[in-house]
Amino acid sequence: MGDPFPNPHATKAKTNSNRKIMFFAAGTGLVLLAGVLLFQAFNAKTGAAGEDKSAGSVRISGSQPSARTQPVAKVGNVVISEDELARECIALYGPEVLENVINRAIIEQACQKAGINVEQAEVHAEVEKIAKRFNLDTKTWYEMLQAERKMNPNQYRRNVIWPMLALRKLAGQRTKLTPEQVQKAFVRDYGPRVKARMIMMDNLSRAQKVWDDVKKHPAEFERYARDYSIEPNSRALGGAIQPIPQFSENESLWKAAFKLHEGEVSGIVQIGLSRYAILLCEGRTEPIVNSIEDVKTQLVDQLTEEQTQEAVARVFAKLKEQTRVDNYITGSTTGGVSQTSGTSFSKGQVNQAIPSPTQGLNGSNR
């Protein structure tokens, strides 16, 4: 789980061959085992784990549910059956794994309706392309997936790459970058940043009182941050935060920061719902790259990937809203809502899509 108050000016990680590769997207080995058993035989139950009353069954790919009595272990004279193991896995991991199965079924149905097919050759080519992005061959890439996240090549191709390619085709659009977008990305990722300290508050009236005191005693900013800021990481450091880049995600924050001169205290800046920041400017960093031509290829690749993922996410969010899903494990019904061509989606909805195949790959910090 991430920090309760994440860095408000965090930017997207940049793609380059020097990244320290970390994996967060895949599940554990037990979750994968549960997924296999769910595909084989899925007996949904209602109520708390351990109840025997059945609430119906779910068919995967049109197959009928059947008893799995093959033994998987024997303890003394007690035989543990595959069906018993499946029930335990469903009780522990059913909702999480079923969500992945449902998402894939939604995409498969949309592809069938649109006459879209994703060939295995396309899947393998995409894996090779991703591996090359990190100067790795596919064998090494698969070995890293297996070692770090216990995800074998078939699972990666089926559960990550295939849905991504299918959604790209369903999106049916190519990204178009403008020179202005590339320039803003260059400034964001390589330009000067504001060095600052921050006091974050969750109440406007308290923020006003602290701001009044800080304006009278700006030299005591660090003490006020330790005493009043609700952001635990920066509070322990006297309000010190990572330098704030221009054109980063929190527009209110970076615009306020770039108006400040060294030693100047900002006004109260609302940076989110019930989140108010007071900044102290401590100068600016030096640009790490002076010419956009030196990194233009990387920037274009990065922005193209970002736009593609956003388009894919919007398509997936729309499919989820249009497709009725009756989930017998959670007892919930979602979707089945007709959408008009002018429907827009919030950022929260966009983030519900199938994760990027390189999600969680972090670059080195500036």
From TrEMBL:
EC number: 5.2.1.8
Reaction equations catalysed: [protein]-peptidylproline (omega=180) = [protein]-peptidylproline (omega=0)
Biased composition regions of type Polar residues, renumbered to the chain: 347-366
TM region positions: 21-42
Residue numbers spanned by region Disordered: 329-366
SUPFAM superfamilies from the UniProt entry: FKBP-like, Triger factor/SurA peptide-binding domain-like
Keywords from the UniProt entry: Isomerase, Membrane, Rotamase, Signal, Transmembrane, Transmembrane helix
PROSITE patterns (alphabetical): PPIC_PPIASE_2
Keyword DNA damage recorded: no
Molecular function per GO: peptidyl-prolyl cis-trans isomerase activity
Start-end of Low complexity biased regions: 330-346
Cross-referenced InterPro entries: PPIase_dom_sf, PPIase_PpiC, PrsA_foldase, Trigger_fact/SurA_dom_sf
Keyword RNA-binding applies: no
Annotated protein name in UniProt: peptidylprolyl isomerase
